[in-house]
Amino acid sequence: MKRILITIGVLVVLGLLAIPKVKSLTQASDAGQSSNASNEPLLVDVHLVEAQVFENKIFTTGTLLANESVDLRSETSGKITELQLEEGQQVKAGELLLKINDSELQAQLKQAEYRLSLAEQRETRQKQLLDRGGISQDQYDATLNELNVLQSEVDLIKAQIDKTQINAPFDGVVGLRYVSNGSYISPTTEIANLQSINPIKIEFSIPERYAGVVEEGDRVIFSVQGQDQDFEASIYAIEPRIDPQTRTLRMRARAANNDGLLLPGAFANMELILEEIEDALLIPSISVIPELDGQKVFVLRDGVVQEQQVSTGIRTESSVQITSGLAPGDSVLTTGLLQVRSGQPVRVDEVDRFEELDL
Known about the structure:
The chain has 359 residues and is α+β, with helices and mostly antiparallel strands. Among the domains are: 44-52 and 278-352, conserved putative lor/sdh protein from methanococcus maripaludis s2 fold (Beta Barrel); 59-67 and 196-277, Efflux pump adaptor protein, beta barrel domain (Elongation Factor Tu (Ef-tu), domain 3, Beta Barrel), CATH 2.40.30.170; 102-163, Helix Hairpins, CATH 1.10.287. It contains three helices and 19 strands. It has helices at 2-39, 103-132, 137-162, and strands at residues 42-48, 51-72, 78-83, 90-91, 96-100, 165-167, 172-174, 184-185, 192-207, 219-224, 231-238, 248-255, 267-284, 289-291, 294-301, 304-315, 319-324, 331-333, 346-352. Strands 2-9-12-11-10-13 form a six-stranded antiparallel β-barrel. The chain has a four-stranded antiparallel beta sheet with strand order 6-5-3-8, with no helix packed on it. It holds the Pfam family Beta-barrel_RND_2. Residues 281-348 form the YknX-like C-terminal permuted SH3-like domain. Residues 202-272 form the CusB-like beta-barrel domain. InterPro entries: Beta-barrel_RND_2 (IPR058792), MdtA-like_BSH (IPR058625), MdtA-like_HH (IPR058624), RND_pump_MFP (IPR006143), YknX-like_C (IPR058637).
């Protein structure tokens, strides 16, 4: 029994003496592994700089308008005797759409024309007498004045007759009509609407800071609900003042609408192309690091990171244009920007290109 106790005691003492040794070996092993890990190159992602065509654009919304639009109303009151407009009908400029009863005016016109004919004959005879000295100049002038008055009466009645009919003021499409043949109408009666929708207009506004870079002829890309395609328009008119309430500049563009897919009143999402830059160099915005004296990026050359001062131009939500400091073919770091230092070797994990950026 005593021998067993002695043996156990010896083992315990040996164990206590071995603990510091084992601990130092473990720490040395961990230190070796840590040292090996720190010597491995940092894994980073890079963006390959390429020259591309870049469109500087802004996004806004607008409303589609008819190229020409008019509410058809009569200039006079009366009963409709002829109705030649149908809903959805294509009409040509000058085409008769509606006629109001003008029988009374026609009778007045015939009466006035008879009186005018007699006055013309009398003026002819008076002219001959005046030439022979048979009457005075005052007598002839009175006859001529009567002729002119009767001619004015005829012209007045004809003008009133013209108001009894409605002709299409331009080529267009007739909307819903609200009268029927035989209806009694007045100038306040809404008859129908006529709209010309090819081409179609788009009205929109942009922030005042872009007023100096927008001009007539600039392209506009827009889309509307219910259509899966984009449409292109061209600015044709710009308001010559800034709206003081909204601080925006209003303008209009015109687009072809040969198929009639675009309807006035529709809401449009728009892209206004301000500028098209050839051979633009763009990189992800995250790669640009601001400094007190400018901006820099980390460039990978021969597996080693180098700092590069750059100048920037146009910015988008995810990218920025580089105007100086980089060249096509450069590789710009997009990850590990807080860990890397100039002169540090790194290893590339992924390479992205311009096509993968959401501009």
